[in-house]
Amino acid sequence: MSSVHRFAVDDDRDLDDLVAGLAARGGLQPDLDRVVDRTVYDTFDWRLWRRGSRLEHEVVVPERGRSSPRGVATPWLVWRDVDRGEVLGRLPVSQVPTFAAHLPPGPTADRLAEVVEMRALLPLVTVRSRQVGLALLDAEGKTLARVLIDRATADGDAALTTVAEVVPVRGYPKPAERMTELLAAQVVLRPVEDDAVDQALARAGYHPGGYSSKLALALHPEAPALDAVVDVVATLFATMAANLEGTRADTDSEFLHDFRVAVRRTRSVLGMATEVVPPALLDHLRAEYKWLGDITTPTRDLDVYLLDFDDFEAAVGPDRRRHLASLRSFLVERQRRAQHDLVVALDSDRYAALVDQVSGWLADPRAEPGATDPDVVPRAAEPAPQLAAERTWKAYRRLVRDGRRITPESPAVRLHDLRKDAKKLRYALECFGSLFDPDEIALGVKELKGVQDVLGTFQDCEVQKASLAELGAELIDERGASQAATLLAMGALVDQLDEREATARAAFADRFARFDDPEVRARFRRLFGPHGDARADHGHPDGAA
Fold it and tell me: Residue 406's pLDDT band (boundaries 50, 70, 90)?
């Protein structure tokens, strides 16, 4: 049986009569009767929902003439497994903080923080319920199973389906099965999948799982190249729009991160769209998307610093840790300034004009001057897999060629350039991968990610070291010579970054060798090479790149 079975109760059914009847038939004892407001929280990208769990802030509503039930005076933040009905953790919290890191410390907060990470906990809907609980007890008074009846409203008075559900107690599956059979036999009940919260989310316009930072593209293998480019850009444009308000409000750092990734992916796709999109439009879009990348960089760099700051403090040791407090406050101040400048740019006429232009182009891409002229866009009508294979193969070969030239003596800029090459290939695989064998694509991405990880660590250390030098000078200029202890702590931090950078550089040769392995090379050739054959089952005309 399912761990939790739910049954709908007719709205006109008297709740007290139903409870009395179930108690008499099943030998159940009342163990709960309360009115409670439950506010549901999740992250913007539904990290809790994706784990099959739900976070609810429960606040008991006092009712005249009804005694307060035992142990419910304190508001609780309750984390549940939705399918099993199991409580994963409970915390006494009067107000839910924006970030899990600010919850009362303990195992529950730690496990919750592992799931939501840096994302904000957002209030979604509030449901007011009268909840009546019945317990099946053994001879010693130990609870073996529960039946919870929930009659709820949302938005003040909008009635939701009354639900009776069987909640098993861990280690006692059989009593829960008997309770499920008891409820199933009641003619006034009918099985139902969702509960009051599911219904309230739907009424409020939420679609659990509806947003993910991962691309979910299914390009048609027989589509012309222009249609494929437009489909990808449109998907990324929608991602930017979805994250715009959270970016402007600085709700959490991932809104800007996802916005920037969509911008970078779009720039990569536009880089592959030569001879597909009219040159005048293409050049303009590439310039404007580069501008978007530039205006979002300062805030993102400072976000990364602040996200990593706990690690920074741990790296310098307890003696110097307290001296970094001044640096943290300085970074927070700088981040606020950069965020202000970013919002000004996003509210500018330039950004509004770009949004209007992209929206118009995506709505009717062939209305653009030259969009149907073979002399202007000679590859716009060719099969999308053919163009994607050729240009992905070119990006792959460039990465392999340049990667083989990296030596322990290569300057940092060469590794930085290689990192950009790796990103371009990764974005090509992500954006056009649905045109090819998905299993082959996944294996290629796996090895490429290993290269990106070490290059990313190396580059982050380079950027952070350079930024620390600049920040140190600015800190002295703005706050005076009293910052000497902070500067010494920053110097220790630079030493730690040097070690991390050296470790990443030493790991590069091994990671790149795995990517440049003959089997991986053969896979890329099958997918994208001039005589590749891994496209045959995906609608590609002859495998030619």
Answer: very high
Helices (H) and strands (E) in the chain, counts: 17, 10
244 bridge partner residues = none
- Asked which of 358-367, 465-474, 510-519 is least confident by mean pLDDT, the reply is 465-474
The 3-class secondary structure across 288-342, one letter per residue, is HHHHHHHHHHHHHHHHHHHHCHHHHHHHHCHHHHHHHHHHHHHHHHHHHHHHHHH
**Cβ contacts of 435 within 8 Å, gap of 6 or more:** 219, 221, 228, 384, 385, 388, 389, 535, 538, 540
Spatial separation of the C-alpha atoms in residues 86 and 344, rounded to whole Å: 47
Cα first-last separation, the chain: 52
Note the pLDDT tens digit of each residue in 261-272.
Answer: 999 999 999 999
Q: What pLDDT digit, counting tens, does each position of 478-500 carry?
A: 766 566 788 888 888 888 899 99
Q: Where does residue 48 rank: exposed (0-12), middle (13-18), buried (19+ CB within 10 A)?
A: buried
Can you name the residues that pair with 325 across neighbouring β-strands?
Answer: none
Q: Give me 241's structure tokens.
A: 């729009």
pTM for the whole structure: 0.88
Q: How many CB atoms lie within 10 A of CB 461?
A: 22
Other CB atoms within 10 A of residue 373 CB: 11
What are the phi and psi torsion angles at 480 (to 5°)? 90, 180
CA distance 53 to 48: 5
Of 60-74, 90-104, 528-542, the poorest mean pLDDT is in 528-542
Q: What distance in Å separates the CA atoms of residue 428 and residue 66, rounded to the nearest whole number? A: 63
The 10s digit of each residue's pLDDT in 134-149 is 898 888 888 888 888 8
98/121 Cα distance (integer angstroms): 5
* Position 329, amino acid: S
229 class by beta-carbon count within 10 Å (0-12 exposed, 13-18 middle, 19+ buried):
buried
Angle at CA of residue 175, ends 6 and 195, nearest 5°:
15
Q: Which residues contact 446 (CB under 8 A, 6 or more apart)?
A: none
196 or 158, greater pLDDT:
196
- Residues 416 and 421: their CA atoms lie apart, in Å, by 9
Length of the chain, please? 545
Could you write out the DSSP letters of every residue in 176-200? Answer: HHHHHHHHHT-TTEEE-S--HHHHH
SS3 367: helix
**Domains of the chain, start order:** 5-193 (2.40.320.10), 217-376 (1.40.20.10), 383-533 (1.40.20.10)
Per-residue tokens: 503 = 């470790």
Average pLDDT, the chain: 89
Label residue 482 exposed, middle or buried (CB < 10 Å: 0-12, 13-18, 19+): exposed
Asked whether 99 and 118 are in contact (CB, 8 A), the reply is yes
Torsions phi, psi for 361 (to 5 deg) = -65, -45
Q: Name the pLDDT band for 295 (thresholds 50, 70, 90).
A: very high
